[in-house]
């Protein structure tokens, strides 16, 4: 099976992105040690990218992930540290959309 790509678009409650990113980045260090994790990083709009960019905006960040398999991604989703992160971040999150992708 080929590598699994995940694009997670996370929108924070207004004015909460910095706090949410701080919590995310603390948890990300643990996620990167998970079996099957190739990449796991929060990203934000690049400043001054010009007209080619469609911005997500000041309350949103995008998590770019790569996993060795769907099994690894599944284990990540139910890991204790992810459950804890979800509980801690719930009040700061306005919405999220998770896109799970395979190479074409």
From TrEMBL:
InterPro entries: ABM_dom, AI-2_Isomerase_LsrG, Dimeric_a/b-barrel. Transmembrane segments: none annotated. Keywords: Monooxygenase, Oxidoreductase. It comes from the Bacteria. PROSITE patterns: ABM (PS51725). The keyword Oxidoreductase applies. GO terms for cellular component: cytosol. GO terms for molecular function: monooxygenase activity. Residues 4-101 form the ABM domain. PANTHER family: ABM DOMAIN-CONTAINING PROTEIN, QUINOL MONOOXYGENASE YGIN-RELATED. This is Antibiotic biosynthesis monooxygenase. It comes from Aliishimia ponticola.
């Amino acid at each position: 099976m080929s590598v699994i790509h995940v694009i997670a678009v996370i929108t924070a409650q207004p004015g909460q992105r910095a706090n949410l990113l701080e919590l995310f980045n603390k948890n990300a260090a643990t996620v990167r040690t998970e079996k099957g994790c190739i990449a796991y990083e929060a990203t934000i709009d690049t400043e001054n990218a010009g007209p080619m960019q469609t911005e997500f905006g000041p309350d949103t960040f995008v998590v770019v992930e790569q996993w060795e398999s769907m099994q690894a991604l599944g284990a990540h989703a139910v890991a204790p540290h992810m459950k804890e992160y979800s509980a801690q971040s719930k009040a700061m999150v306005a919405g999220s959309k998770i896109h799970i992708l395979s190479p074409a």
